[in-house]
Amino acid sequence: MSKNDGNGKTASNANLKTLKKKKAMWAYIFLLPQIIVFFVFSAYPIVMSYVYSFYEWTGIGPLDDFVGLGNYQQLLTSPRFWNSAVVSIYYILGTTILGVGGALILAIILNDQKLNGKGFYRAIYFLPVVTTTAIVGIIMGNIFGINGFVNQILLHANLIDKPIPWLTDPFLAVIILIVIGSWKGLGINMVYWLAGLQSIPNELYESAQLDGAGFWSTLRHVTLPLLKPMAAVIILLSLVSGINAFDLVKTLTNGGPNFATETMDLFIYNFAFSSQLGGGQVRMGYASAAGVLLGLFTFVISMIFGAASFGKQIIKLRGSKRRKGGVNV
Amino acid sequence: MKKISKFMFSLLAVLLLLSACNSDEEDTDSGSEDEDGVTLTFWNRYPELRGGFEDLIEQFEAEHPGINIEKQEVPEPETQLRTALSEGDLPDMWTNIVELAELIEVDAVKNLDEIFTDEVKGQFQEGTWFENGTTADSSVYGFPLASARSKAMIMYYNKDVFDMLGLTEGDIPQSWEEFKELGQTIVDDSGGAVYPIVWNNPGWANEQLVSMMGTAITPEVPWQENYKEGVPQVLTEGKVESAKFLKELLDEGLMAPQSVEIGLGEAEATFSVGQSAFLWSGDWVGRQLFVETEFENWGVAPLPTKDGNPYYYHAGSEATSIRVNNETEHWEEVKTFLEYSLEHLHEVVYVNTGAGLPAKEDVGGEPPFEQYNDILELENELAIPVPKPAEFNSEVVEFNKAYRNKLEVGGIGDVVVGYITGNISDLEAEIEQIDQEMKDAFFETLDEFSEVSQDDYIYPNWEPFAPYTIEKYDELR
């Protein structure tokens, strides 16, 4: 009996292992296309951009002019590159503060059970998300132009004597870029916040109400603390998406005047493809070096923010596992 | 397990097959062949030639039923051509985009000596054939389109505005002072409805304008080199004063304020609807006004300069030409098209549409607007051949590439825009910085290139405003 049992167990274990292997194999089969796509369109270009960054190369012909760290040296001493980094930082911070904060306010308003026409408002605020950024840039160029709609209104209302150079004053142009970039991303952030708000159990609000909490205390002591994990994700997504401002900047200011609104991604484009806006030559190697630095910049921002927002949770998790005698994370 | 392995192997095989089919399809971008005959692909980057090429292709296809030409307009020509080049996906023909030396280095462009015999070459204007433009090592690599003596900026004036304000051709200003005086009259008499000038903001346009106006003050620097001293030079009195003149116009309300943020197309539209009396631009704009904005009542004159002195532009600044894919599978058909074009292109694409000045001599045709000949006359007068160091020493082509690789900006155009918009207060200091960077890069590169010397950039037998001919190079050899 015990012998049979033993054989039976061994056989069923073997079957289980085969089944597990089969399952794993199927998983790999279904993952294979995505893995191929990832290696061809993501991993390979990333690796090659590191390779190109060590060469003086126009993007055509063999890689035969090895310059070592020359491109990096030139970049790190280039005022134009540093200016583009500063503009990018302003844009990233601006769109995150304005876009994420504004979307939260909007989501709280639109989450009100008593509000009529919520679906309509949500659709309206989401509309810019699905509009092509290049088209937004062109239309906003007309709205904020010297003779644009905004200046015309201000002039007719006698609020200004002469048109405001929204797009040709570097400070104002960066502000306009931030405002439009935030407005463009408002809808998607609003959806994220709504998802977070709707995951908060109603019972908590009812308890707070019974305890006599008003709107502001409920917001401060119930809603915001419970939204913290969601906030970390939304802010991180907003920071990272702020790095890709290319289409808006290209169509709205094209980095001008005199490269004052040139972001890092536009800087890379100008040197990789446009000899007129680069140094007079297309320099794929130089642009690749800038791309590598932009990648590192993104990585550093993500790490800093990740450490700041998730660090405490990780420490807490480690502590609780240690107390339970679990494996350290 | 075996079944799974077989399945995986089949899946991989299918994927490989699919990807192979895909690349086959992509490779066929350089022309194709089917029941209707051969289709050649052709990319055009010049908006002013769009209509002319359509007419030419229509005529060609009617006479050659077995050959079709699929023309595509390329709004981002450099990006598109470089991408196609790196993917091995070039069209059969394209209008010049990437520098010739770079294309020859990777064997991407076809030698056209078979078509351009000495006799055929002789049919083109002097200055058409130059190194790294239409030729390399004296072999032809580009089918010349526009005349080398073109692209100089001129002044268009709106005759409707002139009539409305009671102005005549005698009032056309020649000096900056006269321009400002007339400008004030235009503003006053129109009640502020008409601006004297509308301009546009791309850096290249601003650099061209100040460089050209500047030659009236500093003629020894036609573009970015001083051919007397043999050094790069962008800081000249002429350029600085010209940029200051532009800013004065804007600050004094004599330039349409939107000029600092619009492109040439919008500037042409502003001029055409009578919101500005003058427009500064190149020879190709005549056709654009006539066709795109359907405005015919305009005339042309030279740009105003500081004291009304003459100015000039370095001829042959751009080799406007058709280049052929060295890997084209339909060379015979391409050759047929180019031979047909030799007979008809310059007449159909340039003269009949008024798109500019053709490179070929004695071309027939009927210009669509009467001002065409006025433009032609002005361009011939203003675009003057200057020394081209690459003609003297072909090693200069590689040298220039290496030298320019060391630069952060290609010129002073964006600084001029920054100054006009009020974002740069010390114009001289900004230009001086670029000037110094250019000189440093130039001398640093000279140390790296033993085959090139500063002498290749010094032309003692050159006199500004006097055309620099091939014989002049021989005098120095």
TrEMBL record, chain A:
InterPro entries hit by this protein: ABC_transporter_permease, MetI-like, MetI-like_sf
Domain ABC transmembrane type-1: from-to ranges: 81-305
Major site of localization recorded for this protein: membrane
GO cellular component: plasma membrane
Keywords assigned by UniProt, alphabetized: Cell membrane, Membrane, Transmembrane, Transmembrane helix, Transport
SUPFAM superfamilies, sorted: MetI-like
Protein's cellular compartments: Cell membrane
Family matches, as CDD domains: TM_PBP2 (cd06261)
Pfam families on file: BPD_transp_1
Topology of this chain in the membrane: Multi-pass membrane protein
Gene Ontology annotations of biological process type: transmembrane transport
Transmembrane feature ranges: 25-47, 89-111, 123-150, 170-195, 226-246, 286-311
Similarity comment: family membership: Belongs to the binding-protein-dependent transport system permease family.
Protein name per Swiss-Prot or TrEMBL: ABC transporter permease subunit
